[in-house]
Amino acid sequence: MTVVLTGDVHQWIDSADRPYAVETEPALAVEYARIAAHHGLKVTLFFTGRAMIEDARNVSALVQEENVEVGGHGWDSFRPEWRYRIVTRLLGSPHGWSAMQARMVRRTCSTIARVTGRRVLSWRNHAYSFDRHTPRVLAESGIRVWSDEVDPRRVGPYRDGKGITILPINTTPDHEHVYHGGQTAETVPVAKQAEYQHPDAWRAGILQQVDSILGQGGVATILAHPLCMKVADDWRTFERLCSALSRFPNGWATDAARD
Predict the structure, then answer these.
(1) The CATH number of the domain where 120 resides is what?
(2) pLDDT at 259 (0 to 100)
(3) Closest of 124, 129, 97 to residue 112, by C-alpha
(4) In percent, how much of the chain has pLDDT > 90?
């Protein structure tokens, strides 16, 4: 039983969170990793290929942190959006044909390996987006751990038919459930407000979920984005979360796959 703390790191994109932080996401990832390290926690950070080459200076600083595992997060966060909308409409998936997806995965993995000197063994697609080809494509590219599934009913990792280990996000993800930046009680549609929490309530809920999952002998996988944690309250919730998580065993995504 263990805790796996993960985050997703993108290139500079005009997201709803972007106006609330001046730093790049790789720069925030460095802060994130150092906060986690202060509390004795390992982190797995899933990077887009473009983030690797747009901010190589901060990526270089990040890989000096001994508590960091770097995974793949696709190439470009499905930007420009119009292109991926057309591909999805025509082919039923933003990844396009199987060969297109395989090329994207290879390109991302080779770029991360070139910039960091580390082989990519873990993967999470942007927006949890996958299709029927994804398990085979990832397995053939040497990925061992895949973490796109969001399912609180899953207690821990399990094997896909292609041999890849699926590591479900089984605690509440931050981005679509935490008030932060422009996502406030005033701006989130009333119909969706029941899905949102203020940062400290989200943190308390995560800890309850971790206690339950570990009590069942499972692996608790947390998704807390560096950008969201910065924007929410300038790291205060993340600091408190890491402090509380420090009492549990923890590991990287690839460690959990071996459990």
Answers:
(1) 3.20.20.370
(2) 53
(3) 124
(4) 92
Distance in angstroms (rounded) separating the CA atoms of residues 111 and 106 = 8
Q: Does residue 189 come out as left (phi exceeding 0), alpha (psi in the -120 to 50 range) or beta?
A: beta
Give the range of the structural domain holding residue 11, as residue numbers without chain letter. 2-257
What tokens were used for 52? 């690797």
The residue type of 3 is V
Q: What's the chain's Rg over C-alpha atoms?
A: 17
Domain count, the chain: 1
Distance CA 190, CA 182 (A): 15
**220-240 confidence digits (pLDDT tens):** 999 999 999 999 999 999 999
Structure tokens, 145: 């751990």
Assign 187 to helix, strand or coil.
Answer: coil
Q: How far from 121 is each of 1, 47, 240, 252, 257, CA to CA, in Å?
A: 21, 12, 29, 11, 11
pLDDT tens digits, one per residue of 17-65:
989 999 999 999 999 999 999 999 999 999 999 999 999 999 999 999 9
Interhelix angle 25-38/236-245, rounded to 10 degrees, is 40
**Rounded Cα–Cα distance for residues 98 and 136 (Å):** 9
Tell me which DSSP letter residue 128 carries: G
Q: For 244, which DSSP code?
A: H
Record the pTM: 0.97
Question: What is the spatial distance between Cα 61 and Cα 29, in angstroms, rounded to a whole number?
Answer: 10
**Confidence band for 161, pLDDT divided at 50, 70 and 90:** confident
